[in-house]
Amino acid sequence: MLEVLPIASPDLVGVRVKGPVDHQDMLNMLDEFHSKVGKDEKLAMYIEIESFDGFSLRNFLRELRLMSEEYTRLTRIALVSELAWYRRSAMILGRRLPNTNLEHFTPIQRDEALIWACEDELEEYEEI
Predict the structure, then answer these.
(1) What is the pTM of this model?
(2) What InterPro entries is this protein classified in (predicted)?
């Protein structure tokens, strides 16, 4: 299940992963993504992985196609998980998102992860 987290920042999409992720979960996340991003805007993501039972290969390829347009809009991803999940995720995400800054945080660093994910937004605010 992919739970969209209620995050007030207009430039940040947050999700929590628990168990298997299906196509409807991805569509829900995409709806949240589209509600926050304009045509040329950039977004950051906050992802908490509690457990992940994966996709079938067919579903994984379908989800990659579904998200391929959105990859270019991501500037940074804060990944909150145990270290083993980070290693697996970084390998996959690093290949698909070479221009996106990916940072790992442990579960007790959730607050720091949210702050880090919003740093681009905070830097823009300071410039004003």
Answers:
(1) 0.77
(2) SpoIIAA-like, SpoIIAA-like_sf, STAS_dom_sf
